[in-house]
Design a protein that fits this description.
By secondary structure, the protein is an alpha/beta fold. The chain folds into two domains: 269 residues, TIM Barrel (Alpha-Beta Barrel); 77 residues, no CATH class. The strands form three sheets. An eight-stranded mixed β-sheet has the order 2-3-6-7-8-9-10-11, with helices on both faces. A three-stranded mixed β-sheet has the order 1-5-4, with no helix packed on it. It has a three-stranded mixed β-sheet with strand order 12-13-14. α3 links the parallel β6 and β7. α2 crosses α3 and α6 packs across α8. The radius of gyration is 20 Å and the shape is globular. The protein binds iron/sulfur cluster. Iron/sulfur cluster binds next to α9 and α10. Keywords: Iron, Iron-sulfur, Metal-binding, Plasmid.
């Protein structure tokens, strides 16, 4: 694998640890040849870097992660290589193995989320199953889109990975990551039924829409890729009508794999835990969740006290006014990473006054929702 002259990279990519909603993310390799048209690397002006390129050794990367101010042993959910490469590319997979082994040797039991669409082999699964402490989930991205300009990688490769994982998993969990769902791309009945049938091998399904920001808009324009949205948005887009169609067909399909709107809900369910993001505070998210999982989240749900929040803010050196209601802690201007840090520490939703989620939109962009869906959600 090649080393890189750091000056050529977007500054955000030089920060190898960053906090995302689903976990604290380690990314010391950047570059990917898979060419998915909607890739988030467009945000970092990094889409043209096709060769995986290493920014730190695995030992350095793990030390940076576990000494990070946001890392809490056994509690912080972790993610590996989910920003700028695929963890099972030929040049990357041995680094994935090494990082997992280094963390496991230190007996960390944190949840570890690994997203891939590439080849997961029997040898990869042997390594994952040899771990004793980390609680690993493989989230296999599968959209049901035909092979082509949007997703050049053959879906037969991803389906084979799902089969391999399903056959060998004992302590590893498998999520079918159904994304991006886009009207006109992959929301026809045949594709939805096909995707649901593939998902029968998984422990859970998490579904979501498309990030469509100006960077993707430019790339789609350049490549002549048709998209049903006229506007871009900071949040993912999944229109209400499309979601209703998915849920209707899911119910008609009568499969056995539970379906979740939120990644952390699917991962938590698979590990028999309450949702670590405290989504139970947004009850409208839970109407598709299995009853025994709802009970788990209900039992674990605890509204933090003013003293608890104050203590955490002081301990971490975070400055914000705050207000606690039955569903969230409202803060001002902390930024995403600090909010996620508090959210995972408390298992309770931490929102920003300036960025409320709107009722019925499940934290998505307002595109594809009627005007009436405009009240802040409870
Ligand atoms: S009960 Fe609600 S918060 Fe808990 S896992 Fe289900 S959907 Fe998520």
């Amino acid at each position: 694998m090649s080393k890189i002259d750091n000056i050529t990279l977007h500054p955000a990519l030089l920060d190898i640890v960053d906090y995302r909603k689903s976990g604290l993310s380690l990314n010391h390799i950047v570059g990917c040849p898979l060419n998915c048209a909607y890739c988030v690397r467009h945000f970092f002006d990094n889409f043209d870097l096709k060769k995986p390129t290493i920014l730190a050794t695995d030992e350095e990367a793990v030390n940076t992660l576990v000494s990070h101010q946001f890392f809490i042993p056994h509690l912080t959910p972790l993610q590996l290589f989910n920003r700028a490469t695929d963890p099972f590319l030929p040049d990357v997979r041995l680094h994935t193995h090494k990082v997992l082994q280094l963390l496991d040797e230190r007996a960390f039991t944190n949840l570890m989320l690994i997203i891939t669409r590439y080849k997961v082999t029997a040898e990869d699964m042997e390594l994952l199953e040899s771990l004793r402490h980390l609680r690993v989930t493989l989230l296999v991205t599968y959209s049901g889109l035909p092979d082509g300009e949007i997703e050049p990688l053959s879906h037969s490769i991803t389906r084979k990975s799902i089969e391999t994982i399903a056959k060998q998993k004992r302590r590893t969990k498998l999520i079918l990551y159904w994304r991006p769902i886009v009207p006109g791309w992959n929301d026809d009945e045949e594709t939805i039924r096909h995707t649901l049938s593939v998902a029968e091998q998984a422990d859970a399904i998490a579904y979501t829409g498309l990030f469509y920001r100006p960077e993707q808009e430019n790339y789609f324009d350049k490549e002549g890729i048709k998209i049903p949205y006229e506007l871009t948005h900071r949040r993912k887009i999944l229109p209400a009508e499309t979601e209703a169609r998915i849920l209707k067909l899911y119910n008609e399909f009568g499969g056995s794999t539970p379906l979740f709107r939120k990644t952390s809900c699917a991962v938590s369910f698979a590990h028999e835990l309450p949702d670590y993001n405290g989504h139970y505070g947004i009850p409208e998210l839970c109407n598709i969740c299995p009853q025994h999982q709802v009970k788990r989240c209900t039992a674990a749900y605890k509204i933090p006290s003013t003293e608890e929040v104050t203590t955490l803010l002081n301990m971490y050196g975070y400055e914000t006014d705050f207000e606690i209601d039955d569903h969230h802690v409202w803060t001002i201007g902390l930024g995403e990473q600090k909010r996620y840090h508090l959210q995972h520490t408390l298992g309770f939703q931490i929102w920003d006054r300036g960025l409320p989620h709107l009722k019925g939109q499940h934290g998505r962009a307002p595109i594809g929702y009627p005007e009436s869906f405009s009240d802040p959600t409870i």
